[in-house]
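To the wet lab folks,

You asked to see what we're planning to order before we commit. Fair enough. Below is the target structure as tokens, and below that is the sequence we designed to fit it. If anything looks off to you, flag it before the synthesis order goes out.
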């Protein structure tokens, strides 16, 4: 396994851990109504925010990466005009 493949595997594992953690936080918040101001402050410092429309936690880093990837793909597509 080369270094690039190993890095992709590790990144995939980290992303899966992050997804699982966000799902758990979301379930706790939905069940309790709030995780508390201290927890919300800590999550915000880590770039994790509560989406009031979808009622779920999300990572701003993941959101930005997915948005940039989507826009880049759209920009280079033949349909972009």
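Sequence we intend to order:
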């Amino acid at each position: 396994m080369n270094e690039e493949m190993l890095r992709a595997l590790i990144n995939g594992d980290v992303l899966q851990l992050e997804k699982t953690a966000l799902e758990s936080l979301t379930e706790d918040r939905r069940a309790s109504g709030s995780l508390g101001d201290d927890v919300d402050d800590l999550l915000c410092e880590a770039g994790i925010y509560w989406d009031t429309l979808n009622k779920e936690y999300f990572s701003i880093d993941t959101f930005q990466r997915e948005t940039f990837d989507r826009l880049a793909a759209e920009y280079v597509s033949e349909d972009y005009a």
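Structural context that might help your review: The chain has one domain: 3-76. The chain has three helices and two strands.

Thanks,
Computational group
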